[in-house]
Write a structure and sequence with these properties.
By secondary structure, the chain is mainly beta. Helices cover 5% and strands 36% of the residues.
Length: 1288
Amino acid sequence: MRLTVIWTLLWASVIWPGTNAANPEIRQILPRSQDTVHVSWPNGPSTSQKLGGNNWPSFGTGGGNQLHLRFSNGFVIFSAGDAITLRQSYNFATGTKLSLRGSDSAIVDSSGKFLCGEGGSVTLSISCESPSWTFLSSGSLKHDSTGSCLAPSGSSAFGREDVSDLVLSSDCAQWKCWEFWTDPLKPPGFKTGFKIAGAASSFSVAGSTNRFSLRVQNEDGAFEGFRESLSGPDGTLSNLVVVRSRDNKAFPHKISYVEHIAWGKNMFIRPDPDDDDWSAEWNAFFSTGDMFYFEYDTTGGDVCEPSTAKFTGYNSGGSFCRSTNSGLDDNLLDVGGVGSTLVRQLGATDHRSLKDVYANLPGAALSVTADLTCGSSAPTTYTLSSSSTQLGLVRAGHTVVQVTASGLQFIDSSGLGYCTTEDEPTNQNCAMSFGEGSNNPCPESHPSCIGFVSGSSWGKCRKECKDEFWVEVDVWADSVALNVKGTAVSVCTGTVNVQVDDESENSIASASGDIANLNVPLRFERRGSIFGSVDVTAASSVSVTSTVGTVLFQPSLGDFLVEVPTSTPKCSYSKCGEILYKIPVTLSNQDIMNSHPVRLTLSRKFPIREGSISRGGNTGAEITGLSIMLFDDSGQPSGIPVQISKNWHSGSNAAYWAGWDGSWWSGNVYVNLPPDTSISLSFALSYEKYGGVPGWSHAQLSIVGYSDRWLWEEAALGTGGENICFDPLGSHTRATITDVRVKLFDGSWKENVGGGDFSLLYFDETGRMIYPKSVESTIWSSGPCFSNSTITSVTDDEKVTSRVEVSGSRTNDFVRVFLKVRHEAIEDVSFSRLSFFQVAAETYNYNNLPEEYVVGSGSTVSDTIARTCTGVTSKASDKMYYEGGIYREEMTGDGPWFLSMVKNQADADVAYVDNAMVVGDRGLVVREFKAKIGGVELTRPSWSLLCDKIEFGTTASVNTMKKGDYWEAKMEFLVLPRQVDYGTAQENSDSASLDDLATMSEWQRVREQATRGSLKVTGGDGVVVESEYPIGLKGVLGQVRFSVSGGRSLGYVPIVIAGLQTAKRGSGVDLWKRDASDETGNWSQTSSQATLGESSNYYQANWDRESQTFELVFNVEMRDETGTEFNFGTDPGTWTTSPTATPTPNPTLSPTTRPSMSPTTRPSMSPTTRPSTSPTTRPSMSPTTTPPPTLEPTSNPTSAQSPQPTLSPITPRPSNVPTTPSPVIPSNPPSKSHLIKATLGFSVSKDEWDSSVRDAFKVSVSRSLGVGKEDVVILSVREAGLRRMTKA
């Protein structure tokens, strides 16, 4: 398998200013934007082999092309092992696929073997001394090191059954006809077309259908046979038209397919089977000497002509009309190829954009060799090969990324391993393995008896090679740990040597280990401007202790793991109630001179690699909706980012998955401790409810154990199963929204009604699908009050960028996911089809049979449309833009627009009273919209109805976007209970909003979300309103006052207060609330939501790495029809200012990165299986399996490439709130100016002093002096011996 992976990361050591203190402030240890780990798939979501099913078009030629010897009637290279021959091919699908690699002019096959010409013979091998070849202008293929040319051995008549070996010949002039077949319609010798050399014959029956023939010549006017059928990678190519080259006019009759050019001159063509003989018409249309070429059909039922009305990109049968760019295969780094290296770049760079990272990160190479003695064989040197590599994504996020490359083998110079699996050559029957007894045992040479069933069948004897090897890579913000590992080896003895070299082949690091139990670690760190290897056995200056959890330090990884105790609460798949479980930890830095990073993982059964530790017991149903936070020593949310990575998938082979399958979860943290400091924190676990209200969780769900297709994300409202899942790369489904499930608040798993797609679906003007690349998905904040994630990408042709922000929130009514989608043209672009967003995706759409669609704007209904067809995922013409359906029409009204897909008829006879696995209804609200298409500003979206799917695109007359054009929408994706199950949700939730909606019809509930979410937020003095729904504000003064009008909202509304200098609430600081109709003027505190004897388990704190400020997130019900007033700060009765009468401007939709306000995901018919106490897997066609229901999820929670640049810099921000800081709450600045001279010890080198460090220093000084940051002026910076002194 060929796969390219580049771990794109930016390292920086955070060294905070200020005097050493035993207890540093939280902000002193927090990560900066440079301390963010980035993972990017630079050239598409994965290699074409990794992309699921028929949802993706074939990628070019599928990883290579046939290498033809012209004038041989279609002889091409075939391979068997390392041996290669030249023989007849019959279509494009046969023959060995080869490609010319641009980096070194090597010709390689799909497994990475080289075409070699050593010693005059030509073979395929894992290594060559001289693998380079050159196509001469004459057409000869020259072996660069020898100067000889590729040729068949001896003479060949090129008959149908002839087979010839290949050699190097000094006679390059004779063999000047080598050419790759790259375009199915343009075979070698005929790339510019076919020249007519004689009239067409009359139709005659051959086999069961008609055909006719005519004489043709090649583009040079010579007769040239070509015995292959014109075909694509699957061996077929039909529904063609013939185009006359001189005027580009199409012959009016359709061609079924082209068989071949036989006997050097006669082309045999099959017409449409229903056609009468039109050979005379052909001869009248074409003249001798005319050139013609084939194109895809432009008539009738086939819709593969891009200008055809309602072009979809698929033919009438639902298959792709065109293959896509072959660059995904052709231009990748060979991370999976034989003879390739698993590490291509390694080092440190200060560049921020991915493009610059790839351009500036130093080259590197990983070499793993073994000097082994196996049995009685002579000592032999073996090399670790990655020809069958499977790559698994264990953890992914802003804090740590962990990747495994498994299925590796040690092979010798001939490509053979030290052991192989083989059957006993005499086919001997067996009843037991060698040494187990006397009942028909296997011989010692083939000791394993396989398949014996007593009284039923004999077994067969086999010699098995079970040894497996893999490489693990853990990437933190400041370091990379690389481990080469293997299963126990008994057949060989010897040493394995691991070395990483730089691009000049100088050793960066090396280590060795025993093959018997292979574990060779290397670790690299960046400290300041120095990057290099570190001693994995050195003692750490940092310590972590816990009075509840068990702590393990793993030297080879440089991280601390805190395992929860077995008494840690669990949930089963029933009502879980409210739990807030804390695990205190103390982090200490004993180094009195230097700050040090702490890499910390809270774990429940997360696999360990060093030492031993008592484990915290199996996970339960809580894994589906788990939230993990860090509280400070006062019991308040600290804002320290926690990356949640989890898994509930099991594989059959421990080495294949490198031991990372199974059920586990982890909370991962990266902080920096100043010198000689210690800080006490507590991990806080929240499950179903947080502050008495179901919490929201969005996390990476590892699918190691389910598949090797990388990334999956899962989100849930409470616990008891997932509610929405995401496949950001599309590698399973080519749909970014996958499994979607209704919430009935009963704690049990529900049926999947998934799909949707916020990725740009773009077919260019030729009808070719252009896939996204440079895809980066980051969950900045997981919850439990409000999540935030961003997904960014650019199209493969680098013409359109996409940025999507997803959020979900704590509430008690129904699943509501907030989406902000922006696609922007960065170059002029022409398209044959363009979809900006789909509800129910054409590649992922299950249990979605709405009885009707009700569409409207505000409170007005514009369309009620009965569903008349069922498309599911069929892409046949009548299942897409069907006859009589809505097609690229502009919506009416001024918004917000609502689209309800209700009265779901899937499993219509299944009600909750009989079966908890029920489906739900879906709806969409387009809250805000703006676009510029073709340079024209638009205020209303355009939509289409694709049988049973909804799509947003352009109006029918528009097929271009100019540079600077964009499409932008702010939406709410809804999952609601059906009418038959509504009472269950209402009873279980105790939701006032569900009570409000109880008497309404299904579509009216969707409309109610549209109207009740139309909030108007008025900010008081100094308050900036960033968003009105969800509410996002920033106060530039100490207190934040605002009012909300618009009636009673649905559920709990998220409110984000941003730009704060601290997450810690001072005495009396809270979000205060008062109904506008309350004449008594009584204010209530949001802290009344706190439960379990806690004082702070009702809000969430986030740290914005970009602005270096905090935000606090609250969720409130607004039940007063006349409006609600809010104050954030101390008791509002002591305030003197009030909100301004003029509302602040509506928020813009410009993309901002933040950890709040974004959604999450989970698949069914996609990579996820569901955890349940009994291992029941959900039949939902997605890589998600359900986690075990009771106390342990078993198999089902939702359940790289070459350096291709991204076009925009990485922007890691937690929420879309302003980035300029506001003072600590409350603030009491001095009344007059003072000039202060301060001398503080500051351990940074001169080259580390930059604007971000300068700003951090100013913040520290301003805190110490009780002034604003803007009041601090740095007068000078100077060096003072070994200690740098900064003077302000």
